[in-house]
Amino acid sequence: MNLALQSFYSSEVSPELLDWVTSESTDPGSTRWLIFALVTFVWLHVIHRLTVSLTKLCPPFTGDSGQGLRRWIKQVLNQDLTFQHIKIIYPTAPPRPYTPMKGGISNVWFDRFKISNDCPEHLESIDAMCQVLTDLIDDEVKSGIKKNRILIGGFSMGGCMAMHLAYRNHQDVAGVFALSSFLNKTSAVYQALQTREGALPELFQCHGTADQLVLPSWGAETSATLRSLGVRVDYHSFPGLLHELCPGELERLRSWVLAKLPGETGGARE
């Protein structure tokens, strides 16, 4: 596996196990497939949340790691989000200067000129990250996972990144999810879909009505525009939810994932 890509596989496993599962397999029938499952669920994430607590508001522009997301999900659900037949990958966005933080370094998937849906996208950084994440997806396909057994999604900026990755570069994945996310009004995603051919992956989308960072209207407008371009959207609004995750949202996501990636009978590999 490419060394740059290996850093994207953020897993709480021993270095020895990580070396083993990311090494090349010469035996397609090896028990390694018990670990690698038959489907893949790639969850992209950057924390840009406003969380009410005893200290009121956490800083809204704090970049986090893939494992930070994993721990956050566990805190919300009081258990890990796991599936018997699905491998979940929690990539970590690379550190980069982030314009909304006045050029401060943060773990973000791409840069923005500002947090708004009425400005141009920073396509240079978006396209560069699409290529890196495409390499990750290609590695999964090379390991034996069919493209139509891969889901891509994320929270906040991760959801936006997932929509760019899937609808511009990988329209043959099983589905896309975007939680508290949005696309800019003139997004390159919309332009790509105007010349689409064939079926498009379904989008599972959730948004809190009290989100103060990514306005609910931005999410709703994204949903409406994608629908008009032929995307089937499963949209859910959560009353009173800020820019964060909630148990009901994650349970709906779990059900959607299982509907898109059902277990296979007999345990046979595709």
UniProtKB/TrEMBL annotation:
Protein keywords: Acetylation, Cytoplasm, Hydrolase
Domain Phospholipase/carboxylesterase/thioesterase: 63-256
InterPro entries named in the record: AB_hydrolase_fold (IPR029058), LYPA1-2/EST-like (IPR050565), PLipase/COase/thioEstase (IPR003140)
Alphabetized GO MF terms: carboxylic ester hydrolase activity; palmitoyl-(protein) hydrolase activity
Subcellular location: Cytoplasm, Cytosol
Membrane-spanning ranges: none
Gene3D superfamilies per the UniProt record, alphabetical: alpha/beta hydrolase
Cellular component, GO, one term: cytosol
Reaction it catalyzes: S-hexadecanoyl-L-cysteinyl-[protein] + H2O = L-cysteinyl-[protein] + hexadecanoate + H(+)
Keyword Repeat among UniProt keywords: no
Pfam families according to UniProt: Abhydrolase_2 (PF02230)
Primary residence: cytoplasm
Domain of life of the organism encoding this protein: Eukaryota
Keyword Hydrolase belongs to the record: yes
EC nos: 3.1.2.22
Entry similarity comment: Belongs to the AB hydrolase superfamily. AB hydrolase 2 family.
Chain's role: Palmitoyl thioesterase that catalyzes depalmitoylation of CGAS and KCNMA1. Acts as a regulator of innate immunity by mediating depalmitoylation of CGAS, thereby preventing CGAS homodimerization and cyclic GMP-AMP synthase activity. Does not exhibit phospholipase nor triacylglycerol lipase activity, able to hydrolyze only short chain substrates due to its shallow active site.
Protein name: Lysophospholipase-like protein 1
Species assigned in the record: Phyllostomus discolor (pale spear-nosed bat)
